[in-house]
Amino acid sequence: MRSGDTNSDFRFLGFSLLLSGFLILFSGARVEAANQFNVPDDKVKHFSVSAAAQTTCSTVGRLMTKSKWGSTVTCFVSINAAGALKELWDPYRGGTRDETDIYANLTGSGLSMLFISVVF
Question: Would 1 be classed as within a structural domain?
Fold first, then answer.
């Protein structure tokens, strides 16, 4: 994608946001499919939300900064830091801390980061 090419920017934004929407929208279908492999629903949701957040954040960051790697890596670190903080906060809200949720977040945002980096 050339810097300043508005049509490419909008196509990139549209495709990435569409991908994010599908990740969230079809996370319920993934939960059903994952049940065949005994993957807990919570892990599938963590994976889907972090993948969608990574895709959206990378897209918006790249369009704003025109930096492919800067925005992608910054989003990866930010999203996973937020996920880790959420897990640290869970016991104070009546939940339980589960480090495997962090692994699901890392996997979702990592695969999204890889996809965005390779395709665009």
Answer: no
